[in-house]
Amino acid sequence: MGAPEQTRARDFTLGVEEEYQIVDPQTFGLAQRAEPLLSNAAMSGGGAHPELNLSQVEISTVVCNTLDEVRSELVRSRKELRVAAEAVGVQIAAAGTHPFSHWLDQNVTPTSRYLAMERDYAQLVREHIVFGFHVHVGIGDAEVALKTMERAAVWLPPLIALAANSPFWLGRDTGFASYRTDMCDRWPTGGVPQSFRSRAEYERLVEQLIATGSIKDETEIYWDVRPSARWDTLEFRVTDVCSSIDEAVMVTGLIRATAQHCHDQTVGGAPPDLPRLELARAAKWRAARYGINDTLIDLHEGIAGPAPDVIEDHLVRLRPYLEANDDWDEVTTLVRATLRDGTGADRQRRSFRRTGRLEGVVEAIVNETLAD
């Protein structure tokens, strides 16, 4: 069956945020140069912004309707930021963790918000030197967006596996394809979102979290998928930032199709097929641990299978939406290239085997980040 008319791409707008490492081009370690970099940046579009620590910067795209527009925005943003970075003697790199720089050598960005977070979350904030990729999908109805969010949990493991790009941490191979995923799950308001009977119930939870001093405001809810506190969007924030723009486009296309599928199930009144939280967490952990190189848990069926098979089944389920968006050919080509050639995590490990140096890994990440 084809995708219903309401799932047309223009009705599900896209906005993308990428978090980049700022690195020294001589040592390839993290460089705390966000402030001069941002002061020097002449960014068009969505612009560049400070993030949690001084060795990190975030860009955001304008609102997009097609994957071609997303690609153009990411190419432009990376080029503009490269110019600004080189002017202050640094480079940018897109990977979920830095392979060897230590959190002890990094400082929190001295804004009132981030300093308050450091006071509240202490060591958790100091160690949180990670870099993500966030996709906002436009959904105007707040009730529908919330129900779309809860249905999305079954679709997350393949996204984590395909985008995995953080195998190294503090100079060691962690054994994970996406160690960033494990670090993000440490937050008290992180992880897989739960089910809500209504938007009012969600808002009551936010009020309780604020009243109990658990969060300052709604922006401190860090679920893998969450309603945006600012926009009429559903924000998917589960994946590592991708070194390759091709992979970023691939992930964006899959996320929009996922949101459309879950949206249509919601408005069509289909009963939600929600996995047990324990199984959803196990599936997410396995995707982060092994990426595409072992089995994945298919949460639709409640079984494990070879990652390529689970991902191909994932594509089949999303095909009506990918075709309705004119994304099927591009997304399937990029997914199959990743299955054939490996993820960002696989490329990082190959770089290390080739050079024997983690500095060589960072250099390769920089080159891929800045490739046209």
Explain how this protein is built.
- There is one protein chain.
- The chain is α+β, with helices and mostly antiparallel strands and 372 residues long.
- The protein has one domain (13-369): Creatine Kinase, Chain A, domain 2.
- 46% of the residues lie in helices and 15% in strands.
- The protein contains 14 helices and 13 strands.
- A hairpin with a 4-residue loop joins β12 and β13.
- α5 packs across α9 (245-267), α9 packs across α11 (307-324) and α11 runs antiparallel to α12.
- The longest helix is centred in the C-terminal third of the chain and has 23 residues, at 245-267.
List segments where confidence is low: pLDDT < 50 over at least 5 consecutive residues.
Answer: none
Separation, N- and C-terminal Cα atoms = 38 Å
State the major sheet: 7 strands, antiparallel
Number of helices: 14
Rg computed from alpha carbons, rounded to a whole number of angstroms: 19 Å
- The domain count comes to 1
Order of helices and strands: EHEEHEHHEHHEEHEHEEEHHEEHHHH
Instruction: Determine the fraction of residues in helical runs and give it as a percent range.
Output: 40-55%
Enter the CATH topology name: Creatine Kinase, Chain A, domain 2
**Class computed from helices, strands and strand pairing:** alpha+beta
- Kindly report the average pLDDT value: 96
Report the sheet-strand fraction. Answer: 5-15%
Number of strands: 13
